[in-house]
Specification:
With about 170 residues, the chain is mainly alpha-helical. The chain has one domain. It has five helices and no strands. Helix 1 packs antiparallel against helix 2 and helix 1 packs parallel to helix 5. The mean pLDDT is about 85.
Length: about 170
Amino acid sequence: MPAAWETFYFMVGSSSAGLIGLLFVVVTLSADTTVRRAEIASKTFVTPTVFHFGVIFFISTVAVMPEVPIGAMALAIAVISFLGVLFAGAVIARLVRGAVAITHWSDYLFYGALPAVAYVCLIAAAAGLWLDAPFALHGVAAAMLFLLLLGIRDAWDLATWLSYHRNDG
């Protein structure tokens, strides 16, 4: 990655790492929830959100590693993004099957569809890196920022939902 991008990746990567820590606090809010309900909700809402932050952290660390060939970076982004598409697909499948009670239509959008779009954009940007396309560096950055903002929104949604539903499990 060009040195001009180091500050961006440092900021985005450390933000995602900090938000992973804060999600552990959010999970403690669910201590009053029944085990079965918490397990299904965790697979649908918490784990994918942590995964999104982890992807951002992973890409950021690979980007600031010294002397990583651009092809290796493109491959790393493509592989982790493909896993993200699978994760988003699993979330959508759980939501469609009704494995969890949906509180709002936006859960389909913010926990499933939009993360899938972000990961597809990351895959396209990784292909651009591989092909040395002019949009590639900005594409990776934009998709990561989009994923970070989605993760922040989802973490806030989780925290507020859990705080309002602590004892109704």
